[in-house]
Amino acid sequence: MIGMGKRLNEEKRLKVVKEAMAGVKVGVLARMYDVHPETVRSWIRDHRDSISPEEIPAADEHVQELQRLQEVEQRYQKAVKVLGEKELEIEILRELLKKQNPAYLKNLK
């Protein structure tokens, strides 16, 4: 079915749960594996009790990569927010200039 995300086998699901338990955010995992965040959360609920601490991946390269991805995403979101605020400021300044211009031009004469 379209829009249902990829069906992941049990092994993959457990891998996702372990990565979540290692500290990777649900949103990042959901995007990476192309599933809904709520799906990831339900897998965590279903499987977390069956995973022993030894099975949780240490900061191996894959988990480090996911954490880097997470940081980049956070920086990106922050940049988008700042950019949006700047664009809004520019828009406000343009509107102010439109209003101010007639008076500004009169003062020059």
UniProtKB/TrEMBL annotation:
Biological processes annotated in GO: DNA transposition
Entry keywords, A to Z: Coiled coil
Pfam families the UniProt entry points to: HTH_Tnp_1
Coiled-coil stretches: 59-89
One annotated GO molecular function: transposase activity
Name this protein carries in UniProt: Transposase
